[in-house]
Design brief:
By secondary structure, this protein is α+β, with helices and mostly antiparallel strands. It is built from seven helices and seven strands; from the N terminus they run H-H-H-H-H-H-E-E-E-E-E-E-E-H. Strand 2 and strand 3 form a beta hairpin. Helix 4 runs antiparallel to helix 5, helix 4 packs parallel to helix 7 and helix 5 packs antiparallel against helix 7.
Length: 260
């Protein structure tokens, strides 16, 4: 098997490496960590805007969404560089997982209202995969049908990355048929309570409590029931793979610094 990047993927990785090495200095990281512990949201928004301007955010998305169609492998090439520099940007959460999930499973309307904005850096999306004492693939958050065809989400998610900066959260839930699904919840939705959680990384995460949060049928990912049930597994697998790539970049740089 050939594990090397193709020309476009390698060019994207090089561009990300150059930009991040210039912008993510130790002084900058210390400043942002101090800001994060003083009620900041843990995201370097200036750097995020630069990633958008250079096309790094949009590159994994399809051309119809103003991207270059580089997919998950292209996103992973950037995630490795994000890990190498410990860059405080939600590329893993927003691009490598959430945006690609929206692109694959979202309705045409949902894709039209989110993906271009994500690529332009105007919309941050993050997945809420973790619950207390529950498996990622077996959420206790519930989705209850309403008479008008919408759904009501209730439950609690913890350790949600970049949630303090997110405009949209992908929320897995258990549906009445026993299957699972992932719904898009807008920041500020009625019944959504977001509480800051401090972490040992120095970047805050969040605890999300959902109390009958309404989402429309169009905001649930996947078309028919089998596809809806497949979304959470896809999301968890890609998030796990992306975390491994992030760790690989981080550990490789740590080894280099130690040797130096």
């Amino acid at each position: 098997m050939d594990f090397t990047f193709d020309e476009e993927q390698a060019a994207l990785a090089d561009l990300a490496a150059r930009l991040l090495s210039e912008r993510v200095t130790q002084d900058r990281l210390r400043h942002l960590e101090a800001e994060g512990t003083a009620d900041g949201d843990g995201v370097d928004h200036a750097l995020w805007a630069e990633l958008a301007e250079t096309g790094i955010l949009a590159a994994p998305l399809a051309e119809e969404h103003r991207g270059a169609g580089l997919g998950f492998v292209g996103a992973a090439a950037v995630v490795e560089e994000v890990g190498r520099r410990a860059a405080p940007v939600p590329y893993l959460e927003c691009i490598a997982t959430s945006a690609l999930a929206l692109e694959r499973f979202g309705t045409a309307e949902l894709k039209a209202t989110t993906l271009q904005a994500v690529g332009e850096g105007a919309l941050i999306v993050t997945p809420a995969l973790v619950e207390e004492q529950a498996s990622v693939l077996e959420p206790t958050t519930t989705a209850t049908p309403a008479p008008d065809g919408s759904w009501r989400l209730s439950g609690t998610k913890v350790c949600v990355p970049a949630a303090l900066a997110a405009d949209l959260v992908l929320v897995p839930a258990r549906f009445p048929d026993g299957g699972t699904g992932v719904a898009c919840v807008r920041s500020g939705a009625d019944g959504l309570d977001v509480r800051r959680q401090e972490t040992s990384l120095g970047r805050p995460e969040a605890r999300l409590r959902l109390d009958d949060v309404e989402v429309t049928a169009r905001e649930v990912l996947g078309g028919d029931v089998p596809e809806r049930n497949a979304v959470l597994g896809w999301l968890a697998e890609h998030a796990t793979a992306a975390l491994c790539v992030l760790g690989a970049g981080c550990y490789e740089e740590a080894t280099r610094l130690t040797a130096e």
